[in-house]
Structures are given as C-alpha cells and as structure tokens.
Amino acid sequence: MFLSAGKSSLRAQLRTPYSPISRMLTSHAVIFSSHGEPKDVLKTHTYEIDETKLGANEIVLKTLGAPINPSDINQVQGVYPSQPEKTTALGTSEPSAVGGNEGLFEITHVGSGVKEFQVGDWAIPTSVNFGTWRSYALCDAEKMMKVPNPDQSKAEGKKQGLSINQGATLSVNPLTAYLMLTHYVKLTPGKDWFIQNGGNSAVGKFASQIAKLLGFNSLSVVRDRSEIEDLKKDLKEVCGATQVITEEQNNSKEFGPQVKQWLKESGGEIKLALNCVGGKSSAGVARKLAPNGLMLTYGGMSFQPVTLPTSLHIFKNITSAGFWVTELLKSDPNLKRETVDRIVDWYTNGELLDAPSHENVWGNEDLAKVVISGVENSKSGKQLVKF
Amino acid sequence: MFLSAGKSSLRAQLRTPYSPISRMLTSHAVIFSSHGEPKDVLKTHTYEIDETKLGANEIVLKTLGAPINPSDINQVQGVYPSQPEKTTALGTSEPSAVGGNEGLFEITHVGSGVKEFQVGDWAIPTSVNFGTWRSYALCDAEKMMKVPNPDQSKAEGKKQGLSINQGATLSVNPLTAYLMLTHYVKLTPGKDWFIQNGGNSAVGKFASQIAKLLGFNSLSVVRDRSEIEDLKKDLKEVCGATQVITEEQNNSKEFGPQVKQWLKESGGEIKLALNCVGGKSSAGVARKLAPNGLMLTYGGMSFQPVTLPTSLHIFKNITSAGFWVTELLKSDPNLKRETVDRIVDWYTNGELLDAPSHENVWGNEDLAKVVISGVENSKSGKQLVKF
C-alpha cells in the first residue's frame, strides 16, 4: 500500500514519530565496513534512538529522501578521495560508515538547547559524509541546515513548496552549476557567455537554467545523435539554453563564423568554459574562450585527461582549474547557506526545474536491498530512495 | 681582424661613433615586408641617421649584440601572435619591420631633453617588437631601459660588468625563470620545492640557479640519455639543482617514495610546476604537485597539448595556467624594471651564469646574411649577432 501511497497518506506516514506514545525509534541504516562493489559490502544495520535522552544540542531526524549519486557509489568502492569515518558509534561489531551524502530530513525531536530548529522543520546536511542512507538519525543540530518545508514556503507566499526530490538533491548539482557560474569569473548579464560540454547532463541543464535566470548567455555542446534537433529544441525551450551545438560543430572551422556572429550580436565574450567530458572535447570548449578565459573541470565522462593546446595557455592566457563543490563549501559554510537559499528561492518560485529521479520507495523490506537495486539502475538515470 | 679582436680593440671599435667628425650614421637593418622562411624574406636595408637632428626626447643607439630567439624566427614566419608593425618610416619601398626583439645597446647621442641617459650608457628595449637586428637605431628615450655598463658596475664595486651576451639576452629567459618562480606561488625558502620538465633547457637552468639564489628547492626532470649521470652532476653542481631525475623516474611508482623522502627531509611541498614540454611529461610533473598547486606552461617542446588527469583538477585543486613574459610585462613596466635590476645584480655579483651563445660577428658583410646563417645554426644552440 505504501508503495502506491498518495501525497496525503505519505504525509501522515511521515508524521508518525510525532506520536507521544512512541519514544524509541528504530533506524535502518545502510552501512559498509570495507570497500568493494555495493552489492557485496552494503548491509542494513538497525539501531535504536531514544528520543527521551537527547543531549541539549541534539536533534532527531526522519529521512524523507536520499539520492544515490555516482560519488556515493565511488565512496563505497573506495575510489573516492572524500570518505566518511568508520566508527562503532552506531553499535556495529566492526567500524562502519553509513553511505550516502545528500538527503532531505524532517526534524522530529529537538534537544532543550536547540534554537535553530523546531519539530517539523526540514533540513539538509551542512557537510558531506553525514550518511544519508538511513531512516532516522540523531545528531548535533549544527550538522544540519534548515530549508523551508512546504507549509513554511506557503506561509511566505511562495508559489510552491520544495519537493522531496528537490530538497534531497539540492547540495550537489544545482550548487555546482550556480557556483561555477558565479564564483570565479564575472560574466556581464545580457552580454557575456559561457560554453559547456555535456550540455545535456544534470549539471549542464542546471547551468543553462541558472544562466538564464542570471541573464548570462549559454552555448551548450552536446554529442550528435539521431534526435539531435529535438534535443536542441528541448534544451533551448525547457532549460533556456541560448544556443546548442554538437561536438562536431564546435570543432568545425566552417561553423566557427556562426559562433562569432552570435557573440557579435550579443556584444559579449565567452569568458568561462565548463568541462565535464575531458579529452578532445575539453580542448574544443577551451578554444572558444576569449583571452584570459577560465575553464573549470568538474567531471571526466570520457575518461580522457583534460587536454589543452599549449598556445591557449601561453598566448591566450587561458587558465584551467578544477571545481569540487565539497571542497569549496568545506572552507566556506556561509557560501553554502547563501547558495542553498538562492536555489530554494528559485525552486519555490517555480523558476527552476529539478532533474527528475527514479524513486525507489522503501517499505518494510531490507533497506540495503533497496539501495543496491538503486545502484544497479543508476546507469539508466538518477535514483532517489524515498522513505 | 675584427673577427678575432680582443676586448680592448672591440671597445675601441664600439666607441667609434663618439668621434666628433662623423655626424651621419649608416644603420644596417635586417627587415621583412612579408612573412616566410627567414632566408626568403629577410633583407638588409640601410638608412641614414643624422645625429645633428635629434628630437628633444630622442636618443641614438649603437647595437652591441642581439640574439636570434626561436620566437624571433616565428615572428618572421608569421606564426607568432605578437608582431611588430610594418611601416615605411625607415624609408623602405614597402611597409617593413626590423626583426629581433632582444638586444643590448650603447647610447651614442642624446636629445636636449633626455634626462635618463648619457652617452656611453647601456640599454635594453623597454618592450618587445623594437627591431633589434640593426647596427644603429634612433628612438624616443622611453623605448629604452638603462642597464649598467661595465664602467658603472666597476664604480659600484661590483665583481664584474655585464657581458654583451648577458645584456643582450636579459629580457626573455632569465626574466621568464625569475617571474615564474616568484610572481604566482609563494614558495617558502629553505623548505618548498618546484618541479620542472625540460630541466636542461635554457630557462630550466636559469630556474634552477635562481631557485638556489632564492633558497627554493628544485626537482628537475630531464630526458634519459647515455651521459645522464654527467648531466645530473652538471645540473646539480653548476646550476644548483637540488635533485635531478629522468622522465622515466618521474613516472615510476617505484621511484615515488624517493621523491617523498626528499620532500619529508626538506619539510616542504612541491607547490609549483614549470612545464615547457607538454603531453605525458606535463601530466607527470603536475602529478607531483601538492594539493592546490599550480602548473605554469611556458613552452611545448613535444608539440603535444598540455595534458592533466581530471582528478588532479577536481580532487587536488591543481590549476594549470600559461606564462608569457611579453604579455605579463606589457601590463606592468615597473615589474620589468625590478626584475631586470635583480638579474643584473646577480650577474654583476658573479652569482648567476648566463647561457652561452654562439657568436655571429658582423663585420662589413650583408647583415641579413649573418642573421640568416644564425637562424640556420639555431638548432645547434643559441645564436647571438655581435656588432
């Protein structure tokens, strides 16, 4: 029944912990104590949270949703540079960590000294490695950052509340797109451009949408395909991309004058390139940069290294740098707060579309199995575990 | 006789223009009016300079020496992005430019309003595209920057005067090495390191020497060769390189711990990489950088693009940028003055060795032929035209 639950019964389910009768909560957590393929190393660990014994600064959270990101999988595999600490704090026999980094939570209990949260508030983790693949969590209030729940957004007069998918996938893709567009190069609204490869990727679509909201022009490069004209149309009409071209067009001398014409009409320059592909494609987008331009690399989908003609470095003063939202925000928590607020505003004003996820709804089965199934389906699209 | 002239007769020759009898000077200039191979497009143009008709801010220069740099050749070929303006100002039938960018000059006459120069002073061009392949030149005083002549260095108590080779090759290689080491990343003397490929190149040797003078550690990567141990010894003993390794060692996992041991002993990190090779070698030096390190590319001897593993950008926050001394100093003339003074100090204190050049001494033959012969020999080593 829960699998097909409508919105109202789901909300009722979420509110169960408010009941004054239940004081002990059982959390189901997907943990790993060693690294390997998720299906081999992920296990469900259950542990009790006693709501009557909260420390003054502690809060209890019910998980609403948590995505399965490629970086979460790499973390389990042990091939990701950022790793959660493995401890026995949750009563595991071996030091273990809870998987997952992004998630949306509802506060169900607050300690006596907690000022920043009330029961019913929604929150996302302040930082990475919180361990979001679990049904409940107990933590210090400072580990969480408030985002408005639908009632609060309504009270503020917003068009709509955050969806669980929007809240649960707030920290990585939209923040990556927004910060790459705003934190490094000053683009002049109404004039300047950025170019990106992987224009049809999740971050690429956010970048096009956010650029439009900020008034920047975008030139999205995508791989050629049979339905290319439909894709171009979609990226322009739905995501607000200014222009969409194929990799072949981007590398073609014959097509160059068309791009120059677009730039001329705008009165601006391509000052920023976003690269999530690498190899020849990275050289292609870097070549379109104006002198002194910056290329930011945030992914390497081709598994080829970033490649830059020497002359672009020396004679055009092109700089190539990396972008990793985790590291940037670790050193600047205020920046995360500001950026999250900005994205939430756009979502609740109905100005920004999220990337849809396939929902893996957890009922009463083994939670690890739900996550492992999500991992296995993750090549066919973004996966969200909904609690 | 001039070809084998000793130091004193050479100085006498240089002082000829001081003679009060001669007021008209004939300058021999190597010009090009179109681009192509130097042997096809370089010609000698002679023109007269009337010393009695100097503008108030003008000076007359006698050229002492001018090198033939690879970039000078590329400029003649038309494949270099910085180009001198072609004009008919020197009385040529077609708009033409004088070749050569570096050179050392002696002031032979000064206009009535010139304060910064006296007859007998030595000078180098303030900027590029002056056209240094000519025996005499007339220009505004601001086009030249004073450097001490040997008498002035002696009077200042310096160990030695600048040699003509040192003065004529001051603006590119030593400035490139010094500015790359000091202008971007703060290396802590006595601790921190830079790594460079092309450790045996002209700039590479300057970088090792200057790093030693500044107290920085250097790790020079060179190509393997039969006399590799002699080369390592030379680079350490003569140029002051801290450590010298081969490309194979730099890319070897087995050799990695040795580098880590050197770093541990120094208490420092590799914060800067200098790349003049590109391709696999650029990835190799970038991999040795500490997190947040910078790679500066100033050449591409392998003709391969700069290559950087994506993970270095994203997870180690390595930045890859270009270095072009021409562009940097164009925007900051004071920096050129300071840097030139620093290099001249080291030269005249006997603390810095210049890269020896093969001297092409001009007697009375066609000057273009001397330059063309230098161009043809430039693959076997640096060439200087001595006047």
Automatic annotation (TrEMBL), chains A, B:
Subcellular location: Mitochondrion
Keywords: Fatty acid biosynthesis, Fatty acid metabolism, Lipid biosynthesis, Lipid metabolism, Mitochondrion, NADP, Oxidoreductase, Transit peptide
Swiss-Prot/TrEMBL catalytic activity: a 2,3-saturated acyl-[ACP] + NADP(+) = a (2E)-enoyl-[ACP] + NADPH + H(+)
GO BP, one annotated term: fatty acid biosynthetic process
All residue ranges annotated as the Enoyl reductase (ER) domain in the record: 40-372
Uppermost EC category: oxidoreductase
Primary localization: mitochondrion
Cellular component annotations (GO), alphabetically ordered: mitochondrion
Alphabetical list of SUPFAM superfamilies matching this protein: GroES-like, NAD(P)-binding Rossmann-fold domains
GO molecular function: enoyl-[acyl-carrier-protein] reductase (NADPH) activity
Pfam families linked to this entry: ADH_N (PF08240), ADH_zinc_N (PF00107)
Annotated EC: 1.3.1.104
Family recorded in the similarity comment: Belongs to the zinc-containing alcohol dehydrogenase family. Quinone oxidoreductase subfamily.
PANTHER family attached to this UniProt entry: ENOYL-[ACYL-CARRIER-PROTEIN] REDUCTASE, MITOCHONDRIAL (PTHR43981)
Protein name: enoyl-[acyl-carrier-protein] reductase
Lineage of producing organism: Eukaryota, Fungi, Dikarya, Ascomycota, Saccharomycotina
